[in-house]
Amino acid sequence: MIDAHTHLSPVSPEGAELRAESMIEKMNASGVDAIISMGSGGDTFEALKRNNDFNLQSAVDYANRIIPLVYFDPRYEEDGIGEIDRCIAKGRFKGIKVGHQFAEARYMYPMMEKAQEYKLPVAIHSDHSVRNHPYIIADLASSFPKVPVVILHMGGRTSAAVEMVAIKAAEKNQNVWLETCFSNPYPIRIAVQRLGADRIMFGSDTSNSGFGYGSGYEREEYEMMIHMESIRCLRLPKEEEAKIMGVNAMRLFSLEVGR
Amino acid sequence: MIVDIHAHLGRHPLFEFEQALEEIIRDMSEYGIDKTFLHPFPRMRFRDANDSVASAVRQYPNKFVGFLCVNPTDGEALKEIERAVKLGLKGLTVDPEFYASMEQPLTLAGKFLSPLLEKAVQCDLPVLICTPNVRVGHSQDTALQMYNGLDELSGRFPEVRIVVDLFWPGITELGQRHPHLYVDTAGASAGRIADLVSRLGATRLLFGSSSPRYHAGTHKQTIRWSRTSPEQKAMILGKNAERIFKDILAL
User: Fold this and answer.
1) Is A220 within a domain?
2) What is the pLDDT of residues B108-123, one digit of tens each?
3) Where do the DSSP E strands lie in B56-210?
4) CATH number at residue A82
């Protein structure tokens, strides 16, 4: 089982030093073999670089269990593009992640060119806002049909209409994939009916900081498990469920994973 | 008793949501839900929608409590409430978003809803007001209109049990101002539930799935796994509904 959407950060929002162990503990408790780690952004370019390095070191420490993506922030323009080169040169990174509020930024295009050059998938946060809306991501993806683009959250949770746009984006663009965390079972079922199960991946948005959504659960691993429930409650055929819960992520990110 | 106070039967006329009675029954059985409040999706031909809910309740009286819907701008709305109550429906569902998209503007504080609430008082019906599906991305003006509208309506009808979901703008403050306002937790994360328990108290929260938009089983699990006490979970999952809706649950 692969969780296709998680975050590792070297520091908590309060400034405390963090490690990857807490994520491994959650994975063990919830039965997750490997995670795609989006890393984390930063308030400064230096912080972004430090976070990418932490993400890489975590993947070295837990080979085959933590699969890192390079965190790209288009606000850093050429420096951000250079950071992709720096990280890819170190090996292990399996894709590029773009966070909140940037999907329409000018430097998304140079980033996509880099992804095409390195043959890497790109995972982009989505929501209802005009800056992260699935139709913005679909527009970007249609300009780079060779680059797999993952719509994180598949437009998720906040508006039913937006989730349907994410599904439509994947229908129209064969390079668009959907990741399910904070979407809901009903639109996920619609996505499976319309697209088949080959471009849909389970994710949880779990972090090692316990910050945000994770803080509302009695036990930390529940954050991962509640998103698994969103897939399992669909009662899909075993083969389709297995694809969503890990097989597709292995294929997209070219992985050999497991404990 | 575990009570889901918000599940929709049938097909939404605008969005792609659809849920058959058999699916609701299967989820209730699989996830241990004893009672479900069945709501129609909004329809211009609301009599048909109400008949479907009434039929389901007649078929499974131990599983379901039926709510009715009307188009507030329709001249037959009040008569339909009376007819549906005679059919055995026990509450009123209002979906301002759907009818706002029709010919006449509909706001909570406007002229159309007050007569419905007056009728709810007469018939002792609780009222569930749906939050717009496209609520996010709305302007500050819209949020303020929603806040003010519910504030005014709740103040004008203190005897009506009003249920809205926790995405309603300013819900904590509105809940503190109006003790007869209850909060449907549909769609909430565990963190949101825990936060609202700490700020408003567990006695005001209700387990509602708003299925098929959200899923009854996963939402029940979210409440069970939330950082709340066993007593608070029990209240949200059913004890509050038993207390607040004792009459319509025939307890």
Assistant:
1) yes
2) 666 788 899 999 999 9
3) 64-69, 91-94, 127-129, 162-165, 181-184, 205-206
4) 3.20.20.140
Q: Nearest 10 degrees: CA dihedral of A169, A174, A176, A178? A: 90
Give the long-range contacts of residues B176-184, CB within 8 A, separation 24 or more. Answer: B176/B200, B177/B151, B178/B151, B178/B154, B180/B154, B181/B150, B181/B154, B182/B206, B182/B240, B182/B244, B184/B5, B184/B6, B184/B128, B184/B208, B184/B210
The one-letter code for the residue type at A26 is K
Q: Shortest CB distance from A128 goes to which of B136, B222, B226?
A: B136
The residue segments making up the domain with residue A102 are 2-252
Q: What's the one-letter identity of residue B32?
A: G
**Residue A257 maps to a domain:** no
pTM: 0.92
Which chain B residue shows the shortest CA-CA distance from A181?
B189
Position A258 in a domain: no
Q: What is the DSSP letter of A245?
A: I
Nearest C-alpha in B relative to A183: B214
Q: Contact A159/B191, CB-based, under 8 Å?
A: no
Q: Calculate ∠ Cα A161-A163-A169, nearest 5°.
A: 105
Q: Alpha-carbon distance A185 to B104, whole Å?
A: 34
Q: What is the pLDDT of residue B118?
A: 95
Give the β-pairing of A96-98 and A70-72.
Answer: parallel
Rounded Cα gap, residues B42 and A224, in angstroms: 35
Q: Is the pLDDT of residue A68 over 60?
A: yes
For B196, name the nearest residue in chain A, comparing CA atoms only. A216
Give the burial string for A28-58 (b: 16+ CB within 10 Å, else e).
eebebbbbbbbbbbbeebeebbbbbebbbbb
CATH of span B3-244 = 3.20.20.140
Contact A216 B187 (CB under 8 A): no
The Cα–Cα gap between B63 and B57 comes to 8
Its ipTM equals: 0.90
Nearest to B221 among A129, A213, A229 (CB): A229
Residue A189 lies in a domain: yes
Cα distance between residue B71 and residue B244, in whole Å: 26
For chain A, what is the domain count?
Answer: 1
